[in-house]
Design a protein that fits this description.
By secondary structure, this protein is an alpha+beta fold. It has 15 helices and 16 strands. The protein is 37% helix and 21% strand. Bound molecules: histidyl-adenosine monophosphate (HAM).
Length: 427
C-alpha cells in the first residue's frame, strides 16, 4: 500500500495543476515580496526552532486558549521533557529575545519570522494542521504609532501581493484595568442567561468570559450580539490609545472598520487587536491578525517591554491571490526554449542555453524529444515565451527563427548574436 501524507498537511510542489496555490515558485515569489516589504519597514529576520518546551506555550499563549488546551502537538522527548510543535511564533520569538538578551542591542526591536506552524485542528479548506505564517513582532514601543505602523505593514504586504476587497477589523481589548471592568460587566450580563449558553461558553464564563464573544455556536449568537461593548468600559488611558491609533490610520489612509466583538483567541493581547478578512475564502476568512501584548515578555521572565505584532497565513494569502487572479507571483518561465534536432544541434543549444543562464536569461533545452512536435508541446508546458528549433540548416546558415509562443509570430536572429538579441527583447 502506498504511504499517504498525514491528514491536514500538504506538499508544496514544482507543478500542481489542480491546486495551483501549492506550486513552489508561487510560494517563493510571495515570500520574496513579503520579506522585502518587511525589510523596507525596518524589520529583521529571526528564526527559531519549530519545537519548544511545552511550558513556553502554556505560559506564553495561555492555558485557557483553544490553541493550547486543544490543538497542540505535544509529546515527551526521550529525556522525558514535554515538547510541543510551535502553534504560533510570538511566544518563541519572545523566548529567543529573552534568552539572547536582545533588549540590550537597542530600544526598539522589529523582527519578522516565516515558517511552518502546527495546530491539531479539524482540517478543511484554508485550515491545516501544518500551515505557514509570516509573523511580525515590534518590541519596545508603547505608542500608537507602532500600532499604526504594524497594521500599515500588513496592509502594504497585501497591496503589493495584489489582494483586493480586504477588510481591516479593528478593536481594543483595553489595558488590564479596563478588561477587569469589562469582565465583570460580561459576567453580569451572561449569568442570567447561563442555561442558554453553549457548553464551551459555559466554561468560558468562568475562565475567560471575553472569549464568549468569539463563539460561533448558534445558541450564543444572539446573546453575543447584545452583549455590552468593551468600548464603553475603557479607562481614559486605553481610550486615548485607541483613538490615537484610529486617528493615525485615518491620516495614513489605511481603511478599517471598528468591530467591538473581536477579542482574539490567544490570551496575551491587550489594547489594540485587529483581523484582516476576505469574502473570497469561505469559512476560514481571516487571512491575517494580531495585536498588542504589553506584559507578555515580563510574564515569560524577560524585561517589561511592550510589544505588538501580527501573523498572516500564507496558504490563505495564496488562495485569495489565485481566486482574485492577482498578477503578482506569476510562475518563473523560460524566456527561450531550444528544440535541437540531432547531436550537434543539442550541444550547440546546450552551449547557448548556458550562455543565456550565465547572463540571467532563463533558458531551457529539450534534451529528450525525438520529434519537433513533442518539443513544441514541451515548450508550451514549460510556459516558455519563445522557442527556437535548431537543426542542421540553422547550424549551417547561423540563423534561427524565434517563435513567440503566445502570438505565434516569428522573428529571425543570428545564432552568434542570440544573447544580445534576447537581451533586447522586452517580455
Ligand atoms: P492567529 O490569529 O492564531 O494569530 O493566526 C494568524 C493567522 O494564521 C490567521 O489569521 C490565519 O491566516 C493563519 N492560521 C491560523 N491557523 C491556521 C490553520 N490551522 N491553517 C491555516 N492558516 C492558519 C497568531 O498566531 C498570533 N501569533 C499573531 C500575532 C503575532 N499576534 C501578535 N504577534
Amino acid at each position: 500500500m502506498k504511504i499517504q501524507i498525514p491528514k491536514g498537511t500538504f506538499d508544496i510542489l514544482p507543478y500542481c495543476a489542480e491546486e495551483p496555490w501549492q506550486q513552489s515558485d508561487l510560494w517563493q515569489s510571495v515570500e520574496a515580496v513579503i520579506c522585502e516589504t518587511a525589510r523596507e519597514y525596518g524589520y529583521k529576520e529571526i528564526r527559531t526552532p519549530i519545537y519548544e518546551r511545552t511550558e513556553l506555550f502554556d505560559r506564553g499563549v495561555g492555558e485557557t486558549s483553544d490553541i493550547v488546551s486543544k490543538e497542540m502537538f505535544t509529546f515527551d522527548d526521550k529525556g522525558g521533557r514535554s515538547i510541543s510543535l510551535r502553534p504560533e511564533a510570538t511566544a518563541s520569538v519572545m523566548r529567543s529575545f529573552i534568552e539572547h538578551n536582545l533588549a540590550q542591542a537597542g530600544s526598539i526591536h522589529k523582527l519578522f519570522c516565516l515558517g511552518p506552524m502546527f495546530r491539531y485542528e479539524r482540517p478543511q479548506s484554508g485550515r491545516y494542521r501544518q500551515f505557514h505564517q509570516f509573523d511580525v513582532e515590534a518590541i519596545g514601543a508603547a505608542g500608537p504609532e507602532q500600532d499604526a505602523e504594524v497594521i500599515d505593514l500588513l496592509c502594504q504586504i497585501y497591496r503589493r501581493l495584489g489582494l483586493k476587497n480586504l477588510k481591516v477589523r479593528l478593536n481594543t481589548v483595553g489595558d488590564s484595568e479596563s478588561r477587569d471592568l469589562y469582565r465583570t460587566a460580561l459576567i453580569d450580563y451572561f449569568k442570567p442567561h447561563f442555561e442558554q449558553l453553549s457548553a464551551d461558553s459555559k466554561i468560558r464564563l468562568e475562565k475567560n468570559p471575553l472569549r464568549i464573544l468569539d463563539s460561533k455556536a448558534p445558541e450564543d449568537k444572539q446573546l453575543v450580539l447584545e452583549a455590552p461593548s468593551i468600548l464603553s468600559h475603557l479607562n481614559p488611558a486605553s481610550q486615548r490609545h485607541f483613538q490615537e491609533v484610529c486617528r493615525l490610520l485615518d491620516q495614513i489612509e489605511v481603511p478599517y472598520e471598528i468591530d467591538d466583538r473581536i477579542v482574539r483567541g490567544l490570551d496575551y493581547y491587550n489594547k489594540t487587536v485587529f483581523e484582516v478578512t476576505t469574502e473570497d475564502l469561505g469559512a476560514q476568512n481571516t487571512i491575517g491578525a494580531g495585536g498588542r501584548y504589553d506584559g507578555l515578555l515580563a510574564t515569560l521572565g524577560g524585561p517589561d517591554l511592550p510589544g505588538i505584532g501580527f501573523a498572516t497565513g500564507l496558504e490563505r494569502v495564496l488562495q485569495v491571490m489565485l481566486s482574485q487572479k492577482s498578477p503578482v507571483g506569476k510562475k518563473a518561465r523560460p524566456l527561450i526554449y531550444f528544440i535541437p534536432l540531432g547531436d550537434e544541434a543539442r550541444t550547440k543549444c546546450f552551449l547557448l542555453a548556458t550562455q543565456c543562464r550565465h547572463n540571467k536569461i532563463a533558458a531551457e533545452v529539450d534534451l529528450q524529444s525525438k520529434k519537433v512536435q513533442t518539443g513544441l508541446q514541451n515548450a508550451t508546458k514549460a510556459d516558455a515565451v519563445y522557442c527556437a528549433i535548431v537543426g542542421s540548416d540553422e547550424l549551417k546558415s547561423g540563423r534561427l527563427q524565434l517563435k513567440h509562443l503566445e502570438s505565434r509570430q516569428t522573428s529571425e536572429a543570428n545564432l552568434e548574436q542570440l544573447l544580445n538579441h534576447l537581451q533586447g527583447l522586452v517580455v
